[in-house]
Amino acid sequence: MQRSLVDRVYSGVIGAITGFGMLLLLAPTLVVLIISFTGGITLKFPPPSWSLRWYVELLQSQEIIEPALTSLKVAAAATILSAILGGAAALGLARSRLKIARALDALFMSPMVLPAMAFGLSLLLVFNLLGIRLSAATLVLGHTIICVPFVIRMVGASVQQLNPVLVTCSLSLGASRWYTFRRITLPLIRRGIVASCFVAFLTSFDNVPVSLFLADARTEVLPIKLWAILEGSLDVRVAAVSGVIVLLTLAGLVCAEIFGGVSRQIGSR
Amino acid sequence: MPPVIPLAALFLAAFVLPLIALVAISLFRTPQFAELSLAQYLRFFSDPFSIKVLTDTLWLGAEVALATLILAYPLALVYVASGQFMRTLITFLIMLPLLTSTVVRTFAWIVILGRDGIVNSAMLSLGLWQAPARLLYTWEGMVLALTQIQLPLMALPVINSLLRLDGNLTRAAEGLGASRARIFITVILPLTLPGAIAGWLLVFAAAATAFITQTLVGGGRLILMPSYIYQQAVGVQDWPFSAALSLIFTLAVTGIVFAIGALSRRYVRGVDAA
User: Fold this and answer.
1) What's the predicted TM-score (pTM) here?
2) What ipTM was assigned to the predicted interfaces of this complex?
């Protein structure tokens, strides 16, 4: 009898913490979406009335739209660069047993371990010493480095699953290396590439520690702009921006899921 | 190996070289780059304020990681015991914060903890509090926000190691009459500890370096390493000191991660041998 009481208390505690955990995971996203439709001028919750006024206001806020466009461009450039360079490197490293291959793999993964602020600061110092002026290009360079680890891991995992016999067959049947890459290798590692592009894009779009040091006044990016706004005042327009970001991310996730099964890739990371 | 060369060259120029420069700059005595010495490091370790900033930051990471651990285990136990629908729901809930931008997640906590926020208006309308409490710009508020923001990093490895656990072991313990709490403590916990430690280290490093959440939810009065580095580099423009700060911080965080990771691998070998 005593045992079942212990079990019931245990199950109750587990259930309660789980419920709290699930609420905690969901609540902030919901809260942001709800507050973005407030009719009031403060972040009072629950909103005193409902309206789309903050989304309308957002459309007229050039000082937020410009950084958002910059962020999208920088993220797109960093994603493409890291996908091409990282993808090629992942293909080259995947089947190599050389010591140097493992050393390079560790090097390419290290931006993930190193606190990004230290990296951002070190790039800023080098650009300053060399007299290179900060621009969108320097920002893309920094973002590319921090996106590479995801590409190396995810594309690398896809290449590991690829049966090397298929490539050998294609080559021995007379197909050129380029044709084999295009028709055999690429389709088979497509999932890894799509998933890593998705994660790389979000990583760059969301990055603060590197942009903090490398973005100058002309290449202001969205997260830094939002941070600066929130440091000064609790501006409700940030809620509307957040609403847009949440919805776009969900839409992107659905697309990536259809083309690349992204959740399995992230879940098994 | 040829396809690796472009990326290797890029990393050499834009990753290895800057880090070498960071070390070099930290060895100058003055911001004008005069005289090589260890003065910046001496300055850090002889200054109680700087040391407190570092220990506070590491402590914040440890605290947040412990809080996520307490939340992640029940979540993972329910996940493993549930059917397809619940599993999909939990996966979705874990992915949701992982994919929304850090600034957005932090902003949500400003709305929740603010003066007119959810917690205050709920407590006031229930009559539990007489006046709105200060939740934003406090240490506790910052720990709570970071716990939610970093929970996915803990939940994923814990779920993965629970999924790999041999179900026969728990059934054997149950058959031998152990209560479920006892099974958790004597069977499940020791066998999934490596996954938990992996998650703990991820959250520790992420929470200690979370500049945005620290500055926005913690506020300007709680100074932690990331904002200290930023302030010294961009505000004061003291590059040697900020370089030394970021190296000390980097070594402290990665040192703890590697040390605990090594202990954990040793433990795994011990469990396998037993």
Assistant:
1) 0.88
2) 0.86
